[in-house]
Structures are given as structure tokens and as C-alpha cells.
Design brief:
Radius of gyration: 29 Å
Largest sheet: none
Order of helices and strands: HHHHHHHH
Shape: elongated
Helix content: 55-70%
Structural class: mainly alpha
Strand content: under 5%
Number of strands: 0
Number of helices: 8
């Protein structure tokens, strides 16, 4: 919702104008932080995906070759950077989301202060039951900020079996911000995605340090049929043996 500064709603026109200007400023900042959240997600997803793909491609290219153990170990720097990027993405996304909600709560307080939380006459309503000028998000402090007041069906099912310990409404802004962060679906989805990518990166680091990239030599006598392995020592060594057999 965009507002134009200078509109009068009380006798104190100077204070009213300053409040409208401040409301417009917070709205501009809110839009900016919302854009930054998407930029954070796009940037870090591009970096992390590229690093993970490069790691897998390097592992496939080096598996089964002789004399590349040192290079194999050095390539672990790729998933290491990916894990660090995942951590930075979570921190940055959380920071941008919190700043966004700070701007929003300032807008909500100013809107109530200048008297925008009013009822709409029945003859001027857009739909019959729309009796408030402002949406519920602007007027209800428990909107997605109260453990007992959630709207997502999957969250309601989870809370049914694992109810929150504290159901009372937030008493201060910091507590409200913490609860609003927990109820923000966009933030939660991408935080868990970055956590999953961080664990994938750590798993690749473990493979690169614990796995032997050199293919197991074939001691089968020349001309004798090669036995089919029942179980390979690992996925990489099996892939290397298949590549060597094709050559």
C-alpha cells in the first residue's frame, strides 16, 4: 500500500504531515528490504549450486586416475566454500527479514496513531464483510506472530501434535519480531534449503577426504572372463572401474 504525504487527519497538521512522511519512508524501506531478500536468495543459490555442481564434476573427472590424490584433496575447497556460503546466506536472509519486519511494525504503529484503523460504512464497502479500512495484518498484533494463531495447514497439523510451550501474545517488539520470523513461510523455506545444501557440502568434503580416487587394479589373467563384482567398495570406485572397462 502506497501513501501520499501531506494528507490531514487531525488538527495538528504539521505533526500529521511528518507522520505521513515517516509512513511513506518506512514503506519505501520495506519494499527495499523485500527486494533484498530475493536478491540474497538468487545470489547465494547461484553460487552454491555452481560450487556443488563443480564439485561433483571434478570428482567424476578425477575418479580412477593415477597420481591425482593431492588434486583430489585440494578440490575439497569447492564444497568448503559452498558450506560457508550456505551459512552466510542464512545469516543474511535472517537479517534482511528482520529489518523488513521492523519497517512493517513501524508502519503499523504510525497507521494506528494517525487514525487509519477505522471502520468502513456499510454503503461504501468493497465487499459486504470488509468492514475495516486496513487489512488484518495491519491491525492484529498476533497475525502470524502468535504461536497459537497460524494459518498454514501444515503448521496447524504440526502444532496439533507438538503445541508451543508459550501461547501468550508478545509483550515487546523484540519478542514480536522473533515470533514473526518463526511464522514467516518464505524465510523458513529458504533457511531449511540452505541448511540442506550446507549438509550436502559437508558430506562432499567427507567423501573427498575419506575416499580413495584411484581405481582398484584388475588382476584377472589375460583371456579369462572377468568376474562381476557383487558389491563395489564405493560408488566412486565402481564408477571408475566401469570407465576403465569401457576403455
Amino acid at each position: 500500500m502506497m501513501f501520499k504525504p501531506g494528507r490531514k487527519t487531525s488538527d495538528n497538521s504539521e505533526l500529521n504531515k511528518r507522520l505521513w512522511d515517516l509512513l511513506s519512508l518506512h514503506n519505501t524501506n520495506r519494499i527495499d528490504y523485500n527486494t533484498r531478500k530475493w536478491e540474497t536468495v538468487k545470489f547465494f543459490q547461484t553460487v552454491i549450486t555452481a560450487l556443488l555442481a563443480a564439485t561433483v564434476a571434478t570428482m567424476y573427472a578425477l575418479s580412477g586416475k593415477q597420481g591425482i590424490t593431492l588434486l583430489w584433496r585440494i578440490s575439497a575447497i569447492l564444497p568448503f566454500i559452498s558450506a560457508i556460503s550456505s551459512y552466510l546466506a542464512i545469516k543474511n536472509l535472517s537479517r534482511e527479514s528482520r529489518l523488513l519486519f521492523i519497517e512493517e511494525v513501524q508502519m503499523f504503529k504510525i497507521a494506528r496513531l494517525i487514525g487509519l484503523d477505522i471502520s468502513v460504512p456499510e454503503t461504501k464497502r468493497w465487499v459486504p464483510d470488509d468492514d475495516k479500512l486496513l487489512p488484518l495484518k495491519w491491525t492484529d498484533p498476533t497475525f502470524r506472530a502468535n504461536p497459537g494463531n497460524v494459518r498454514g495447514w501444515w503448521i496447524r497439523i504440526w502444532r496439533r501434535y507438538f503445541p508451543p510451550k508459550d501461547r501468550r501474545p508478545a509483550r515487546n517488539i523484540d519478542e514480536w519480531l522473533d515470533r514473526r520470523m518463526k511464522g514467516h513461510v518464505f524465510h523458513n523455506i529458504f533457511v531449511w534449503l540452505f541448511i540442506a545444501e550446507c549438509f550436502c557440502s559437508i558430506a562432499l568434503i567427507g567423501v573427498l577426504f575419506l575416499e580413495n580416487p584411484v581405481a582398484v587394479p584388475d588382476h584377472t589373467p589375460e583371456g579369462a572372463p572377468k568376474p562381476t563384482p557383487i558389491l563395489s567398495t564405493s560408488l566412486l570406485s565402481h564408477g571408475a572401474s566401469v570407465k576403465a572397462h569401457r576403455k
